[in-house]
Design a protein that fits this description.
about 160 residues; alpha/beta
């Protein structure tokens, strides 16, 4: 599915195509932001932004970046350490991160098979999945029960 069929331009991306060099540049950028501008309580990523965030956290397990939680909204599967291919659970032993995660997914997301791959890479015991009736989008303010549940989860995590 073409992005232009789902949203109006401009389209901003972390990387160009699937260029490994571009992917690795994006991961370095996010890592530097987390290290230099942090610490942050949490981080949020939507679609490719979720993939970029997961790729960064997975590739630098030495740094927890002091994140207490993640919010991932319809993230696409992250890249392997070379930046050449997307990961799925057949290529990894165990979860790729150990950070409590709120995983928001749309029932009618046309790329749901790709978001499911990302979900399968997360620790089940630390992941709260929230499904909503929409597609590949960030739920808007009309989804009050979804955001109330996400907020309650964040408050419970950060209170620990």
């Amino acid at each position: 599915m073409r992005l232009s069929g789902m949203f109006s331009p401009p389209f901003l991306k972390y990387w160009h195509g699937n260029s490994p060099e571009s992917v690795l540049d994006a991961i370095r950028l996010i890592k530097n932001i987390l290290l230099e501008a942090g610490p942050f309580d949490g981080a949020i990523g939507f679609s490719e932004g979720g993939a970029a965030l997961l790729s960064t956290l997975m590739q630098d397990k030495l740094h927890s970046f002091s994140l207490k939680f993640l919010i991932l909204i319809a993230p696409i599967s992250p890249f392997d350490p070379t930046g050449e291919r997307r990961l799925d659970k057949t290529q990894i032993q165990g979860p790729i991160i150990d950070i409590p995660t709120i995983f928001i997914t749309g029932e009618h997301d046309p790329v749901r098979p790709l978001t499911k791959l990302a979900e399968e890479l997360l620790p089940q015991s630390k992941t709260t999945v929230i499904e909503w009736s929409g597609g590949h989008a960030v739920p808007n303010s009309s989804q009050t029960s979804l955001w109330e549940k996400a907020t309650a989860e964040i408050l419970a995590i950060t209170a620990k």
